[in-house]
Amino acid sequence: MNDYRFWFNQKRLLDGPLEMLLANPQIDLPFCLMWANENWSRRWDGSEDDILIAQHYRDTDDNALVDCFARHMHDPRYIRIGDRPLLMVYRPGTIPNARQAFARWRELFRERHGINPIFIMGQAFGDEDPHSFGVEGAIEFPPHKVVSDCRLINENVQILDEDFRGQIYDYADIVENALRQPSPSFPLIRTAAPSWDNDARRQGNGLVMHGSTPELYEKWLNGLVNSAQKHRFFGESIVCVNAWNEWAEGAYLEPDVHFGSAYLNATARACTGFKSSSNKVRLLLIGHDAFPAGAQKLLLETGRTFRRSFGVDIRFVLLEGGAMMEDYRAVAPVEILSPTSSDVMARLNTLRAEGFECAILNSAASSAIAPALHNNAITYTFLIHELPHLLQSRDLRKAMRDACETAQSIVVPAHSSATRLGLEKHPHTTILPQGLYDLTTFNGSSREALRSQLGLNAQDLLVIGVGYADMRKGFDLFLQLWRKLAEKAHCVWVGAIDPVLQDGLRTEMGHARASGTFHMPGRVHNVADWLSASDVFTLTSREDPYPSVVLEALASGLPCTSFADNGGIPELLKSLQNDPTTFNMVVPFADVRAMSLAALELAEWSKARGQNTRQAAARKLGKSFLFRPYAQQLLRLAAPKIPSISVVVPSYNYARYLEARLVSIFTQTFPVLEIIVLDDASEDNSIEVAMGTAAEWGRDVRIIKGRRSSGSVFAQWQKALQQAQGEWVWIAEADDLCDPHFLEKLVHAVHQCPNAVMAFCDSRSIDETGAPLSASYQPYCVEAAGNLLEHDGQFSGRDFLQTCLSERNLVLNVSGAIFQRTAMQAALRTCKKDLKTLKVAGDWRAYLELLDSPDVGVVYVSDAMNIHRRHQSSSTHTLNPTAHFEEINFMHELFAKRLPFSQERLEKQALYRHKIFQHFGL
């Protein structure tokens, strides 16, 4: 902690907290002092105006000044570099004859107290070089210096105070400027600021660092930490943060209502050295508005699934607001960004600086922002839900075509849509039918209740249409359909109606309702119940790309009929024609008579089925429309370079550790394809803990519970690889933990080695209670591999076997590794027989099989990102010493047979066996 010291001509001010600290030596808080040596003015800005107390620098005050600071320096908690206490002086430029003054004070410290302090100056008010004042170093004091050369953004910010004359800078620009600063020739402590806004003190003339986020602050501090490790301050790596609690100047790390502890967490990540890599996945989901309609609901569910199922860090950007804003905010942060606003480019540039390098553009209606995305190097996947008539009516055709030209990929729901849009031959077009985001099934009780509410008997047929009742949805055609059906069926339309159309059809709608066979409940929240109550679904739309409600109808067991050539649904219905559990018809476009005949035939067929048959059909079709696979493919299109990772958590009676383990997976900065808890017939409440933790964190976890315990860790490994679907598998044992950047860094390492089949990192260890045991396994690795694993590296498989695994297994914990799934599966199949007998060395055996090939590689990250829990119930501790020794001997013999070994290598193996023999007292 660095504390301001207010000392004016032998008077101390605001010294209560510091005196309290000195009086309580049990408070473990290292500190040093900065002499705030400027005038004390009413506005607290050191100016010559409204001075409350002036600083005079009288020679007769020197002894008292030195004695005051020395009193604090004698405290054992005072920060020293070597044996020299650190003393900062805010404004050396205000001190008359500063060189002589510092020389006097330095001599007085030696004579009176035997202290030789390191004097450093604040880089502020244009004073930056310590040599000018006879001090030994400097410390940055943002916003001083770091705003130099940064452009003002006053014109891009909405300012409510017409009299404001202050300076507003873009925080992202300041971060970039600060990180570009060259290293000076003198010792310098670099400083980051979480934010800054001192307008409260300057009343319309303040300086504002606008747009700070925890991510940008972490980037700044992280860069300073890296710099401090290379350019040390008197041999020490030191950085500073301005400030802990300067609330009046908007510079604080303390938690607040808006960000919570996010800035403190960012500080921890930067200072512990777990830095972000270029593979961090942050995704913008961009929609045209938050109106409660199909495309908007699809974007919302896409965001929810990305976060819940895959752990992707997302942010919604909407061009306009709407009634669903709170629904969006419940999933992720939302901001409104109009493509015509003056700050759209600057804001997207800031978002990209925060790591949002990819986007999904959710509709042609949002394509106006595509040029800004492209100009900010944000790659985007373009989803088009509209068809030509709607594009023409809303004047979107040119904007859509332009967006297609710069899109990374273009997604349409059906081949017919691509053809009508002229995109069937575009090289970036992908046909991807959307999934079903509302859980729909058949409910017999709801069917009976709603039919009773409508006054229907068991023999009555009910025909349903769903959607916003306008001309595009063909509500007028649905009214004609009702007339064609006459007394043969009831009709119900679920959804709000377009006011203009309502006025035009008022008389006809009045007759329909008066008949008692036409029903309009309006917009409802239980669409699934209305589908259950019905006997056939009719899609009367003139143009409808791929309405989700048809999927919902099929998933409720309803037969469907649709006009041809109105979008992608006819294509879907034709694809189901060989499925005996469903019956659907496509009729000529706008042929209401043909639809009425089809609807009657389908409704009679549906009515003739029993409810159990319909329910079975509903379950089967519902599984074919799952939303998660759709979202997974969409994510692969948006971030194509990101490998898919399955996380498998093998667990047996580890309920006490499982919550912490799952949380360490949920908080990874890298997305995952799936999380599987593989329970080996636990007898404790592991399943309940897993389900409760997943629910609390809003994440999807697949739980596979064994009927009987396998009794083998390695049998669980084999099962894990059978169940996993990702390209890579992380076997994250239930009793271990990890750093949030574990996957991010390992995947980044894998990208450097295209033939890698395995990546692992160093581990630190904890005991059963979580208390630290060791900070790294490198001292153990040095015994066998020298300094080979002190730094990141990549190896050919066989080289790694010889140098790092032939004497002992230096991959000490499988939780610290990820494996290429198919390669590891093949390895486990090959050594399956050995794994049945090996209790401790099975992992060692599997690594030999995996890496014993001329064309595979392994990568290693030296950071201890894995946390290995060592306790008495682990397999290593439960195996008897003789069996343990015999397994080591078995592995040594197998290595000697499989690999060309020198006599020196054989001798090292023998020495290790002798060491183990003595260790076990055999």
Characteristic key phrases:
39 strands; alpha/beta; 9-stranded mixed β-sheet; 10-stranded mixed β-sheet; single chain; globular
Reported by name, the CATH topology of the largest domain is Spore Coat Polysaccharide Biosynthesis Protein SpsA, Chain A
What would you call the shape? globular
Taking the sheet with the most strands, its summary is:
10 strands, mixed
Global Rg: 35 Å
CATH architectural group of the largest domain: Alpha-Beta Complex
Kindly report how far apart the N and C termini lie.
54 Å
Number of helices: 36
Descriptive notes:
The protein has 922 residues and is an alpha/beta fold. It folds into 5 domains: 1-140, no CATH class; 142-273, no CATH class; 282-431, Rossmann fold (3-Layer(aba) Sandwich); 444-625, Glycogen Phosphorylase B (Rossmann fold); 643-916, Spore Coat Polysaccharide Biosynthesis Protein SpsA, Chain A (Alpha-Beta Complex). Helices cover 40% and strands 19% of the residues. The chain contains 36 helices and 39 strands. The strands form 7 sheets. Strands 30, 31, 32, 33, 34, 35, 36, 37, 38 and 39 form a 10-stranded mixed sheet that branches. Strands 1, 2, 3, 6, 7, 8, 9, 11 and 14 form a 9-stranded mixed sheet that branches. Strands 19-18-17-20-21-22-23 form a 7-stranded parallel sheet, sandwiched between helices. β24, α16 (475-485) and β25 (490-494) form a beta-alpha-beta unit. The longest helix is centred in the C-terminal third of the chain and has 18 residues, at 881-898. Residues 273-279 have low confidence and may be disordered.
